[in-house]
Amino acid sequence: xxxxxxxxxxxxxxxxxxxxxxxxxxxxxxxxxxxxxxxxxxxxxxxxxxxxxxxxxxxxxxxxxxxxxxxxxxxxxxxxxxxxxxxxxxxxxxxxxxxxxxxxxxxxxxxxxxxxxxxxxxxxxxxxxxxxxxxxxxxxxxxxxxxxxxxxxxxxxxxxxxxxxxxxxxxxxxxxxxxxxxxxxxxxxxxxxxxxxxxxxxxxxxxxxxxxxxxxxxxxxxxxxxxxxxxxxxxxxxxxxxxxxxxxxxxxxxxxxxxxxxxxxxxx
Length: 268
Ligand code: LHQ
Hints:
This protein has helices at residues 32-47, 86-103, 119-126, 153-161, 163-172, 178-184, 196-208, 212-225, 230-245, 248-258; strands at 6-10, 16-21, 53-58, 62-64, 108-112, 115-117, 129-133, 137-139, 176-177, 189-191. It has 268 residues and is of the alpha/beta class. The site of ligand LHQ has 25 residues, from α2 and β6.
């Protein structure tokens, strides 16, 4: 599929794919085309075994400003639950986007180059890690236009920053700056804007050399552990470890340890 609003770049030979939202004139707000193309690009990255780490970023000065409020083809102003409704827009477009990231069994890094607002903030929250430019901000913009946080924000934000702070951000719509995001654990690191992509690529390249199968299973287990009691989480960890422990990368990891050398993981 040729894309109009998404750029795809594969770093040669290192297993890192970068997906760039590319509507800079609208701060990468989601029109219908961008939603469709991003879902397609995410699914393709999830399927492609040569991609062992995915980076999501935005072109220009923003990461993503959420739903394109000028896009009348969205027609999500039509209430009611049928085609064209808000719920249909979420169920058909935004929710699959978020689920594809959360269920992809490989690490996904958001390189947050600028403002992440509304569903654009949710997109960043859904990624596994956030490397954040020092001028970037996170805005739960929904309340400013009379909406509730969506695209996973009610689930993901309290888990990342705690209920009290999440609620404050959701009901004020105040921007959270990069430094505060770091203090809260929402940002994994904060770097000067001109170092964002190289810093992110260094991390992505490192993760792409790591045992992808084990990382995928770790993600699966942590996703599930957010929802269950400790006993059940321990039990599920044991199942995941059984799978990881039978993988070629585990054998390679132990061999490398015994032989006092760096492991050469293949992702299997
Ligand atoms: C935009 C947008 C935008 C279009 C900036 N759309 N053009 C909603 C509905 C339905 C179903 C599902 O779920 C959702 C989820 C959501 O995402 S709701 C939340 C939608 N997003 C927002 O409410 C954010 C609106 N934008 C802003 O608050 C500001 O633009 C931010 C804080 C992001 C950036 O502020 P500034 O840096 O001051 O930039 P700006 O406001 O001057 O924007 C620059 C341009 O981008 C401007 O266009 P123009 O032609 O005047 O230069 C804006 O109109 C355009 N733009 N966000 N979401």
